[in-house]
């Protein structure tokens, strides 16, 4: 008997990224009876999944991979063999915002995704269930089905939508203990049967009441809307942070008072330098494009405002730095504390750090960037100006001799830094810009720093009569 036939099901995932890798690792860990293979067109990525150095930093991930890898979890660069063998294929390839042609800067670029659909069609020798994991515009499953059914196995592909709700940094707990799992399918007997197959996989560890089934378009749209609502909360509190800075209100106090309303809840109300990550901006722009396409211009404008406020917030942060430091940054040494788009990840996609770093270099500041996990990605993001930036893993060494430090990522280790030591190495006047409000501002001000935060009055040592 072959090894393959020992497994109850053969699952394939195309795309070994931040979503595909952790999701498949958890399925494999929770379901040893299934064979789970993850393929990717990038052989380097596959090699890293097969090595001792993971291609992505995600707390708890490596323990899960170590348990299942070689048992029922496999990483391979042979996409075609993977397709032939599997009964269920998750597609988790990237769908970035288009950078060309119609919908440039807004619509999702579906080229990889469509290429994957064609490859599945051309390699498949038996019926398959195709599961959309990538976030896609509404009605993409239908397009995928059209591509798949243009082949010989026309009636033997079922396409399901199963959007991913994991957040980086908490991916493993989001996967093992999800708020909900959403599965959309065609409301046909074959569609419902395919949906049940996927429900049965998740039912290995997710309680039945958390597995929602819907029609395929509701499922696709729900993912965009969930991300739009989450991002909207951040833009809402960030918009209020600008008002707080003009008055004597403290945005953290406002957020606390607002969030204690049971109907609103306390989460996602942390004012910040702006949201980043591969999903929020892309998904909202996707939603905006969809609304425009259907002629819903007021709706499109409403959601576009969420992205506009986010851009405004990043811009405002740099303006605060510039005005605080006497309207010139030229020749000043500035350290960015953190570059990842959030703590507990090395991911820098759409990180506010990218915008802030570029603006500061434009102002001719001397830039030093530190981050415990994201320096490799930071160097790639800023490759064209990397010769003007120093990348320094040690935060104390990074801030040595600086005029200012700007905290951009809420790594807990930054809150625990010895700021007396930091201050002793900095140029005076020393400035701290806290883009995440995680530092003890009063204490730092008393120590001698000029402290600027988000949504709170600045704490400076300058004589107002002279300014
Ligand atoms: C991706 C999508 O960006 C997101 O919209 C969706 O919600 C989940 O999948 P992520 O896993 O974070 O998110 O992307 P990324 O880390 O870039 O991984 C995608 C992988 O797909 C890459 O490793 C890439 O090499 C691979 N890929 C891409 C293929 O294997 N085939 C392709 O044709 C294109
Ligand atoms: C998000 C969604 O949360 C997840 O459900 C979806 O599957 C993918 O997109 P992710 O982008 O990984 O996940 O992280 P998230 O925790 O949502 O943070 C996104 C950005 O918002 C980060 O830059 C974060 O720092 C910022 N943020 C979050 C704030 O600025 N304030 C907050 O209160 C919360």
Give a structural overview.
The protein is of the alpha/beta class and 467 residues long. It has helices at 20-30, 43-49, 61-68, 79-85, 111-123, 140-148, 171-176, 189-202, 216-246, 251-259, 280-293, 297-324, 352-362, 375-381, 395-399, 412-415, 419-425, 441-447, and strands at residues 9-14, 34-39, 73-76, 88-91, 128-132, 157-161, 181-185, 211-215, 333-337, 366-370, 389-391, 404-407, 431-434, 450-453. Strands 3-2-1-4-5-6 form a six-stranded parallel sheet, sandwiched between helices. A six-stranded parallel sheet has the order 11-10-9-12-13-14, sandwiched between helices. Strands 7-8 form a two-stranded parallel sheet. The chain binds uridine-5'-diphosphate-xylopyranose (2 copies). One uridine-5'-diphosphate-xylopyranose is lined by residues 14-20, 40-42, 45, 92-95, 112, 115-116, 133-135, 164, 278.
Please give a handful of descriptors for the protein shown.
binds uridine-5'-diphosphate-xylopyranose, 18 helices, 6-stranded parallel sheet, alpha/beta, 467 residues, single chain
Q: Give the cofactors and ligands.
A: uridine-5'-diphosphate-xylopyranose
Helical residue percent band: 40-55%
Low-confidence stretches: none
Structural class: alpha/beta
List the strand order in the largest sheet: 3-2-1-4-5-6
Biggest sheet details? 6 strands, parallel
The proportion of strand residues reads 5-15%
SS element count, helices: 18
CA radius of gyration: 24 Å
Q: What gross morphology would you assign?
A: elongated
């Amino acid at each position: 008997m072959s090894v393959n036939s020992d497994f109850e099901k053969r699952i394939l995932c195309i795309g070994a990224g931040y979503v595909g890798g952790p999701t498949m690792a958890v399925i494999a860990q929770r379901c040893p009876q299934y064979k789970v293979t993850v393929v990717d067109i990038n052989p380097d990525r596959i090699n890293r999944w097969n090595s001792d150095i993971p291609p992505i930093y995600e707390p708890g991930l490596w323990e899960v991979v170590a348990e299942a890898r070689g048992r029922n979890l496999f990483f391979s660069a042979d996409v075609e063999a993977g397709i032939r063998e599997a009964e269920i294929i998750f597609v988790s390839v990237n769908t970035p915002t288009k950078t060309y042609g119609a919908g440039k800067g807004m619509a999702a670029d579906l080229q990889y995704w469509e290429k994957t659909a064609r490859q599945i069609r051309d390699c498949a020798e038996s019926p398959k269930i195709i599961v959309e994991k990538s976030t896609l515009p509404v009605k993409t499953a239908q397009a995928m089905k059209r591509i798949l059914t243009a082949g010989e196995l026309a009636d033997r592909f079922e396409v399901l939508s199963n959007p991913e709700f994991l957040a980086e940094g908490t991916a493993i707990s989001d996967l093992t203990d999800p708020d909900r799992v959403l599965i959309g399918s065609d409301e046909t007997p074959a569609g419902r049967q395919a949906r049940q197959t996927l429900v049965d996989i998740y039912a290995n560890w997710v309680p039945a009441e958390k597995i929602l089934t819907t029609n395929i378009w509701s499922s696709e749209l729900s993912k965009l809307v969930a991300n739009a609502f989450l991002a909207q909360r951040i833009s809402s509190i960030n918009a209020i942070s600008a008002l707080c800075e003009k008055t004597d209100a403290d945005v953290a106090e406002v957020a606390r008072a607002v969030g204690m309303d049971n109907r609103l809840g306390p989460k996602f109300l942390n004012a910040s330098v702006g949201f980043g990550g591969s999903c929020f901006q892309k998904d909202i722009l996707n939603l905006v494009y969809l609304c425009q396409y259907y002629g819903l211009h007021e709706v499109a404008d409403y959601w576009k405002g969420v992205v506009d406020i986010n851009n405004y917030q990043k811009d405002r942060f740099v303006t605060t730095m510039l005005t605080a430091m006497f309207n010139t940054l030229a020749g000043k040494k500035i350290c960015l504390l953190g570059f990842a788009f959030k703590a507990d990840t090395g991911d820098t996609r759409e990180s506010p750090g990218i915008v802030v770093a570029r603006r500061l270099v434009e102002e001719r500041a001397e830039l030093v960037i530190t981050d415990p996990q994201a320096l490799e990605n930071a160097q790639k993001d800023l490759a064209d100006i990397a010769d003007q930036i120093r990348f320094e893993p040690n935060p104390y060494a990074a801030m040595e001799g600086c005029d200012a430090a700007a905290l951009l990522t809420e790594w807990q280790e930054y809150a625990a830094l010895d700021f007396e030591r930091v201050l002793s190495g900095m140029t005076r006047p020393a400035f701290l810009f806290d883009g995440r409000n995680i530092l003890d501002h009063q204490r730092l001000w008393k120590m001698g720093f000029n402290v600027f935060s988000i949504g709170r009055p600045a704490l400076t040592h300058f004589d107002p009569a002279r300014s």
